[in-house]
Amino acid sequence: MRAAREAIAAGEAEQVDQIARRIGRELLTPVVNATGVLLHTNLGRAPLSHVSVATAQNLELDLETGKRGSRQTGVGSLLAAACGAEAALVVNNCSAGLLLVLSALAAGRGVAVSRGELVEIGGGFRVPDVMAQSGADLVEVGTTNRTRLADFARAASDHDLALTLHVHQSNYKIVGFTEAVSVAALATLDVPVVADIGSGLLDAACPWLDGPPPAWLADEPAAKQTLAAGASLVVFSGDKLLGGPQAGIIAGNAEMVRLCAAHPLARAVRPGGLVMGALQATALAYLQRDGDAIPFWRLAAASVGSLRARAEAIVAALPATVPVVSIVDTEAVPGGGTLPTVTIPSIGVRITGDHLDALRARDFPVIGRVIDDHTMLDLRSVAPKQDDELIAAVAALVDRS
Ligand SMILES: *Cc1c(COP(=O)(O)O)cnc(C)c1O
Predict the structure, then answer these.
(1) CA atoms within 13 A on the CB side of 351
(2) Which of 249, 398, 378, 388 is nearest to 304 (CA)?
(3) Helix/strand/coil for 36
(4) Which residues contact 118 (CB under 8 A, 6 or more apart)?
(5) Arithmetic mean of pLDDT, 47-69
(6) Ligand 1 and 33: CB distance under 6 A
(7) Cα–Cα separations (whole angstroms), residue 169 to 57, 221, 283
(8) pTM for this prediction
(9) Mind listing the pLDDT tens digit for each residue in 105-118?
(10) Which residues on neighbouring strands pair with residue 126, listed in sequence order?
(11) 168 CB under 6 A from ligand 1?
């Protein structure tokens, strides 16, 4: 109907099919993420399966007492256990988490942040703006490239500080003549430390993986170790390295978490039952040390050998008339607020020429990238069960040429 109306309004009734197709393309649909960016914000970050039957659930009913309960109790305690926190609270995303923490714990008081960490995370989320929105007073400390503990100590004696804030350098890196203050050092001051770690790695030891932690995780802050280093609270995303649904998690000191939960904003940023259910499944997988149950970790932990075998099977399944496809070593990236210099060894299928538009135009869109004028389909970010879609898409390209 909308297509027909738009076509008539535009005086192009014969265009109705095209317009209907364009409108259809605005709807959410599964795609093959062959970009090599595992946590691609445009592609919904962590891949997630969720099946939810239409049923009532005990979202806010305490089954023991029959009285009103909290949607936070169960999931919050699972997440707290998984990262060694006293308590945890779930909100809509990490940005909302930081806003709630600052509003509940620091409105009308000072929050000290290094000038090297007054960042824009993306989409206009800027630390100074969030601070202003919360009613907390930003106390800038140190310089862009070098900040010392003494700078924070001076801020603590000159101002009424409610918190010090440590922000993970998610999307940039300061190199050269630099100095930064660790969470452990900040925690020696008599002011509670809040760490926005963004990326949501739960535990640097990765007990949910079979082998040792992958090398590419070496410099990522983890919730458990950041709390152990002395942070009173950590705030992180649910859909980055955690591999769950879009959510924000506030974890740490029980009294501070309680104050956040009691703040009026908490209700405005609380997730619905779908998200709580998906996050509960993710938290249980961590507690059962079952990384295989988390789609992101299945992708991230796949061996290069297994990716190469898949690439060979994909190329072998293509029509024999295809001289333009090759298998190459690539560097995938975790994405999702991990350090920009971090890469994961990977394997790609390279097709001569730029075919991004044709691949994206398919009913099951394939999203790749172009490197040196050629199309690269990186298998690190593709679930094996989508290899057939990839084959069909590439075969169709060749058929046309
Ligand atoms: C990604 C990120 C955020 C924003 O997280 P959302 O869940 O997208 O709101 C905030 N802080 C840091 C350090 C991040 O990396």
Answers:
(1) 27
(2) 378
(3) coil
(4) 126, 127, 128, 138, 140, 167
(5) 90
(6) no
(7) 39, 10, 25
(8) 0.94
(9) 999 999 999 999 99
(10) 120
(11) yes
